[in-house]
Amino acid sequence: MSMSTPPPPRQVPGSAGPDSPFATEAARAGALRRMKRLATGLLVLMTAVFVVAFSLQESIPWMGYVRAAAEGGMVGALADWFAVTALFRRPMGLPIPHTAIIPRKKDQIGESLGEFVQENFLSDAVVGRKLKDLRFARTAGAWLATPAGSERVAKEAATAVRGALEVLDDRDVLALLESLARKHMLAPEWSSTLGRILRTVVQDGHHRQLVDLLADRAADWVAANRGTVIGLVAERSPHWVPNVVERLLAERIHRELSAFVEAVRRDPHHRVRGSIDAWLQDFARDMQSKPETIAKVERLKHSLLGDPQLQELAATGWSSMKSALVEAVEHPESELRRSFVRAVAEFGLRLTADQALAGKVDAWIANAGLYLVATYRGQIAGLIQDTVSHWDGEETSRKLELQVGRDLQFIRINGTVVGALAGLAIFTAATLLLA
């Protein structure tokens, strides 16, 4: 009688013991083979004892007890071998009904396993209790506060940013920017808003520094361009005016112009400054109420934002910004990278020291976990069912036997021992009662 064994598993390097959840298939297969040899060895031992005792029981009366024990052990060993083997395959290849249960019932097993996991491991009570016991905020905070933790987060974030920027198509980004600009910049009417801003600026006197700057520049230009002013006067004077008169007139105009500009620059209440204030106030009012002015401002807006050079500048700016951002997040010594590392470490310290913040984070994680489980527990159970349904029947049987087959061999061993004791007890009782 041969005891069928599963095909040798794929050899995967590893050192975990066969009882470890991380044990490799090779380790489990080795442990299963050893237990099968032990259980089969007991059957062979019982068979040998039975043969010897059966042949000597006529001459040695007490050998009958040994024969009965060995006979019971053989029956128990064979019965349990059949029961264990029938789970995974047909014993000795015979088409016996209700054998090879796992290969034949693979889909039902996957469905039951998925339902079992969904009801017993993915229930709100189980998941909520586990998430509450994790105390994720303190553990994560302690790790983030360490240099290794904050650097690791910064490194992973840099990888994510670089990957996101590499995936983004520059044309798509520019198209998005253009779409946003049209929606939020071109579509709204600017004139009224700019008019209100200009009115506020003039009322608060913020424009006076610009007027001071213009006056200073004008005074500096007049002082530095005396020859230009004299030449302009000479060009525009009548031809019949004597040169001496032109010269004297040009000098006088330059002196008056210099005195005028200097007066504007020095006197904060000069009438020119007042005229500028009045003109700006009128222009601010016209931008809010005068249709002609509003139309001019809108045409200027569209002209500026639709300029091809501005679009080219946006494309160049995005390319430069992307390159600078990638370089900054990847370089360990960049200010952006160091600032991010410090922020992560400080957040970790807050998680460990601030009980209220840690409680909020733990509550948020628990709520998020419960939401995900409640939303996707059906899909998780379905994943288990689909995975098992796509397994080959023999492969499924082999996988399950590697997981639990070693422990099932103890059933064979116990069956051998219990069968031997039962056979001995029955023979002894019969001998005492019927002798």
Please describe the topology of this protein:
Blueprint: H1 25-56, H2 63-88, H3 101-104, H4 106-120, H5 124-134, H6 136-145, H7 147-167, H8 170-186, H9 191-204, H10 208-224, H11 226-236, H12 243-266, H13 271-289, H14 291-305, H15 308-330, H16 335-353, H17 355-390, H18 393-434
Can you walk me through this structure?
The protein has 435 residues and is mostly helical. Among the domains are: 25-104 and 391-434; 171-325, no CATH class. Helix content is 82%, strand content 0%. It has helices at residues 25-56, 63-88, 101-104, 106-120, 124-134, 136-145, 147-167, 170-186, 191-204, 208-224, 226-236, 243-266, 271-289, 291-305, 308-330, 335-353, 355-390, 393-434. The model is unreliable at 1-16 (pLDDT under 50).
What are the salient characteristics of this protein?
435 residues, mainly alpha, 18 helices, disordered N terminus, transmembrane helix, membrane
Give a short synopsis of this structure.
Keywords: Membrane, Transmembrane, Transmembrane helix. It contains 18 helices and no strands.
Percent of residues in β-strands = under 5%
Unreliable segments of 5+ consecutive residues? 1-16
**Number of β-strand runs:** 0
Structural class: mainly alpha
End-to-end Cα distance, whole Å, is: 36 Å
Can you tell me the overall shape?
A: rod-shaped
| Major sheet summary line | none
Roughly what percent helix?
over 70%
Q: Please count the helical segments.
A: 18
Oligomer: single chain
